[in-house]
Amino acid sequence: MRVSARLASAVLGFVLCALPSSSASTPIITSSSLFTDNRPADDPFGLPGFRISLQATVSDPLGVPGNISAFIARNRSSSEVISMGFAAGEQTIFPGLYTAFPPFRADRTGIWDLVVLNRQSQIGTLATHNLDKAIPLPIPSGLRIENFPPSPSAASRLSFTPVPGAHSYILEVYNRSLVGLYLSPSSNTPVFTLPPSLLTPGQEYVLRVRAVQRDFAEPGGPAENRSVNALRVVVPSLPAFPPPPAPRSLMLAPPAQDAPPGPLDPSKPTIVLTHGLQNIDDRNADANATLRGLWIGNGVQQAAGLITLDLLARGGTRGTLPVNIVQFVWDDAFQDFRLSPDIPTRKAYALARAYVNTAGVALAEKLKSLLPASYDQEVHFIGHSLGTAVNAFATTEFLKSRPSVPRAQFTALDRPDHVNKLVLVGGDSKYSLDTFEQRYGFDENFFAVTFRDVQSRLRVDNYFSLTGVGVGDSARGQVYNHTPLKNPNDLDDAVFIGEGVSNDHTGVQQWYRWTIGTPSIPFPGGAPVCDGASFSGKPLLFSATLSPCDNGWFWSLRGPKPDPFPENNGGSVSVTALDIAPFDVVTINDCRFEVSPRALLRCAEHSSAFATGFFDIPDDADYLEFLYGFDSPGDGDYASFLLDDIPLWTVSGLDLPAGARTSSGPIPLSGFHGRNRFTFGLIGVNDVNASIELSDFQLLFVHDRGTAVPWPSGFLLVTLGAMAWCGVAFRKRIGSGRVGRWRQLRRSQGTECTS
Fold first, then answer.
1. For the chain, which terminus, N or C, has the lower number of CB atoms within 10 Å?
2. What fold, for 144-235?
3. Between these two residues, 423 and 613, which has the higher pLDDT value?
């Protein structure tokens, strides 16, 4: 920085006029360096761009900086005078260091005279070398850490891509507060062996690498040009990643009841039933035993059993049903509810949610293995809770692979959107974020974005409750949104006897089961409650929204009246994509990152391999999506993608054929706007034999083309019980919060979109 003419004159006066002092009390400039300094725009030390670097170390018998009153530098050619600042954060590595980093100008080259003044009015002086070959040296890139964590036989190493024109390299390590921890010796190659205990998993560091070009025309070959890259890195810790995905089972409903799946009949349509979040107490080592406790099971009150009975009543023959019925059981959905067997916590939900992507891929692949590529029958996916997200990923992947399927249906039962309603208990502080719903929920655009490539063959019906702990809501796009079910918990005991405690979330799938066959109280086999479409037998305290008459299953593809399907009322949306590349990427062990011609991350198993860096996510970006594939699937190895330490995408190498490439599916970005750290891990299991590739990262933007509200604007919702309905969330979805953002003018890829 510049200094005042008065101070400059005073210090220079001391240089010209001061009498010699005792060497025991005179400040000494022990070293100096002068070179150009080239850094990226996001330099953590706040010194971006191409600059002049003036550096000098000072000693004084009475202490530095306490006994130093001024330190200046004067350019011999231009006479410019600047002040040198004490580098407090560098003292561990460079004791007594003073620096100045003015932006580069041609008149700042040449020789600088350095003058230091202490509080006893004593001075020290030193001249720099002649900076006369100034050029911007390319910034180091491609930082990699290998052999981490270190072993007795192999130390960890940090390396990066050689910089053209550089003669030597240096590594510095700082803590998150930019306090220096380590300075390497100068090296002729960009490879450094790290001290064994330098880096601790889970901790944040700043790794600063320097490339130096020297001027060998001067004695000693002083540094002439330097480039620096300093990257913030949180060293990945395995406990931050989800555990390995658990087994998944695809069960075949009657006529092969309680048997593992065999080849499905390719001449028949297929119905797929998928459960959602479950209490861990409901899981059994035997998948058939687990199935008997799930709503998708084969009993007379369970979905597969009810569909079978309905088809038999309408002319089917046991053993030759006109459809394939399969049930998908995914063990990762079974979590510890902690408070009670029937009320999930946020933690239980978040842990299960981490696996919906891999469960969806597994379901699609299992179906593809059982139904040929030429399959040309209709398919109906029915899922509840997190099972709707699993089914959404599976539906898209299956329909893409089976182009001859003429028509499909997707039925959503209380899609997990307003997950802030879930219970927060002690010890779950990481899930108490105000952004929990945005980060962990599946919002109103999820179906429109996920199904955008298969929408022409797909019809979607969406059922949900806004009361109690119902977490669903209306969906946007080509969707039929049923009127919100008010207090579907009322069905428990009255309609479904012996199913234990229920709530308005589980009540949605109970209501849908009630629509299968002949609705009655109790169900099945009780007194009918429907006279055609009239809810003639409605109990006094039941809401009219709970009418099972000519509803739900009635208009399913295999229901009594599949056509006409209810009119779409989700409005119309469009989706645009924008390529994005992560930056400041550091790879650990056998990962490689490339930017050109497209962002590409390759990782091979080395115990475990990681990559960490950053994305800058615009405020109006809705989803992140990328392509991935396992070139070698391994033997239980899996991959996980985290944003700000939140697991958002996990997939097993065993769920996808080797060499196949598929989409990650849309990863919601609500709650992640701005600069966000990503961490990717290929987690090694058993032998070292897995490899994965990620590429084609894209941001997805949803644009509004008009919104239809699927219920009267005066519809009043009253919640009974201890849990209050979150009216704020409802107003946000239909009112100004989201619609206001959709109405903003957006320009993306040269396209101007307004609603």
1. N
2. Immunoglobulin-like (2.60.40)
3. 613
